[in-house]
């Protein structure tokens, strides 16, 4: 029960009594601004970073401001803020002068938060090996795709650290799926936001199977900085597509296949594909729910190619992103703006 | 391109040529049964386990078949299948004769799959400590709730292993939120499936904030074994509720608060709450998207209470659940039923 309510500066202070058995009193301080906000408008207000969609030439011109020094990223919260903002705006950033050691990708992820463990492990290797059993370990071309879409919760962020890349070829390929979606006729956009595509992985004691709409849209529209409608997330991964589609009754399956083809075409148009050969000591961090990635063929007879990767969950990225925004933009006042009864660090209170 | 298509036994065999640059040919074997199935009907067919909603008395009578020996769970895939089926049907099972060592909860989780890491760590302690700074570490009553709803992707499974429980009191409380939802008038069910409630956690360098509908429903109805409509998942966690609601324009906020109150009342009705004092060497595994959990007060002056917990993602549980279903029910033929071009264990093929 509220014992007293006062307006102090820009805050409402409520003193509570006996609302939790055994705890006599505690105080809540709620900024007045917040009382007139829903979480969504709050999010827009404080984290209002619209996606900036890009084609290859446009991203290339932004490269100077999308490249960050590893040491600054680790030590300077202003740079961390620029990195998280860059990912939210462009979907992709690069780190340079990264130590060329095997475990450093965990530091890069850890600066943002807890690594997303999967059955691939905490981190994993993308290496060319001779007499490879699987196409991932060959030197062949691999088309644009996203990772782990056969899960209900694919990782939001992918990190790839380049340790070796001395072979001829092997350029990384990136395409902004928000751009491809924005360039589709409204009719196709609509079909791809309703019809679902199934993805699966069945192997070595695992059987993942999940279907997603190709374009995920919210109840209200999201637009890029140019005011063009873009989805909240994209789900496109031909290598793991299951041999069936899912369409609700009002979506024709043939039309779904046709619209998916148009989307594929758009995302693969040469002017939409950013081609970049990672150098040892470079690292790319990108939004796995937005950016399609792939690889050009390379000559594995001479030289080596070795990337080390890991994932972060969207939840983890968003949390850190808010905290650095508050500490940098609001100069430290942020994290204490909502003071609540403390339930501690134990997730379970059973 | 397809080079040849043949029907062999109950399968369609397709030989492909040149569809992947550099790989001349590979073969797909697709069961005919599967061609006439969508992933959803497939899921129903092969994993068709409807939820069985319960109240306290009903669950209590099922206890003999919901308790499994730890060693059998670890070593016998038939028992693992019964455990995963039990969780899908009842939302909750118990293990007995669990070694009373600190790290065994990781083995219990690992039998199903990769542990869900969170900022609480891989595993965490629920312990009573004197002069606790937080209410979680006190000996007080804690109401029914679910964990980590301030995330977009709360863990699907929670595991709690009891190491010590010698204090007076401290019974665990469980309530089937599907039952509470099924008992609501259709009007309230409808409001709770549309209106969203926000949850947050802002502390120690983290700021999680997410809103969910209280009752998550799919495009098609899910019913329990009695044919009553139940949600796909529930989101209810008063301790972490943010000080604002979210309702779309057609849901009145006052009505949302009122319907939420009715849901709370239903889930807390004494006949709906299963009360159980965990003994050292016992472990409870439950669906964190369905089962509400809580704790009665206990006397911490004498004795000790120590639970060790961890989480699993829904994706991980579902994958293992399918695999053991196939190996037990289909006697091993399952995992090879869909043979595909192998893309290996590396998640990324960049």
TrEMBL record, chains A, B:
UniProt-listed CDD domains: CAS_like
Entry coiled-coil feature ranges: none
Cofactor: Fe(2+)
Keywords: Dioxygenase, Iron, Metal-binding, Oxidoreductase
Biological processes, Gene Ontology terms: carnitine biosynthetic process
GO MF annotation, one: metal ion binding
All residue ranges annotated as the TauD/TfdA-like domain in the record: 67-311
GO CC annotation: mitochondrion
Pfam families referenced in this protein's UniProt entry, alphabetically: TauD (PF02668)
Gene3D superfamilies for the chain: Clavaminate synthase-like (3.60.130.10)
Domain of life: Eukaryota
Family label: Belongs to the gamma-BBH/TMLD family.
Name of this chain's protein: Trimethyllysine dioxygenase, mitochondrial
Organism: Golovinomyces cichoracearum
């Amino acid at each position: 029960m509220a014992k007293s309510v006062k307006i102090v500066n820009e805050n409402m202070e409520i003193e509570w009594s006996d609302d939790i058995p055994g705890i006599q009193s505690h105080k809540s301080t709620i900024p007045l601004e917040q009382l007139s906000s829903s979480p969504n408008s709050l999010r827009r207000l404080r984290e209002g970073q619209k996606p900036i969609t890009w084609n290859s030439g446009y991203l290339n011109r932004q490269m100077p401001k999308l490249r960050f020094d590893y040491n600054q990223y680790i030590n300077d919260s202003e740079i961390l803020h620029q990195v998280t903002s860059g990912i939210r705006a462009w979907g992709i950033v690069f780190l340079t002068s990264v130590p060329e050691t095997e475990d450093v990708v965990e530091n890069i992820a850890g600066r943002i938060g807890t690594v997303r463990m999967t059955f691939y492990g905490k981190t994993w290797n993308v290496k060319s090996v001779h007499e490879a059993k699987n196409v991932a370990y060959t030197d062949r071309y691999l088309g644009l795709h996203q990772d782990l879409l056969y899960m209900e919760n694919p990782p939001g962020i992918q990190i790839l650290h380049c340790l070796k890349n001395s072979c001829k070829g092997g350029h990384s390929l990136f395409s902004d799926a928000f751009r491809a979606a924005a360039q589709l006729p409204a009719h196709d956009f609509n079909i791809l936001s309703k019809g679902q595509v199934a993805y699966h992985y069945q192997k070595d004691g695992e059987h993942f199977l999940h279907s997603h709409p190709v374009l995920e849209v919210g109840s209200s529209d999201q637009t890029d900085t140019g005011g063009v409608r873009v989805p909240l997330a994209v789900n496109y991964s031909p290598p793991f597509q299951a041999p069936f589609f899912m369409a609700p009754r009002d979506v024709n399956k043939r039309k779904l296949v046709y619209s998916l083809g148009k989307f594929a075409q758009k995302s693969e148009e040469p002017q939409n594909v950013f081609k970049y050969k990672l150098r040892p000591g470079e690292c790319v961090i990108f939004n796995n729910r937005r950016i399609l990635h792939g690889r050009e063929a390379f000559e594995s007879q001479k030289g080596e190619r070795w990337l080390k990767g890991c994932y972060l969950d969207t939840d983890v990225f968003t949390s850190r992103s808010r905290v650095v925004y508050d500490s940098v933009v609001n100069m430290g006042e942020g994290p204490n703006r909502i003071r609540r009864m403390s339930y501690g660090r134990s997730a379970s209170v059973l």
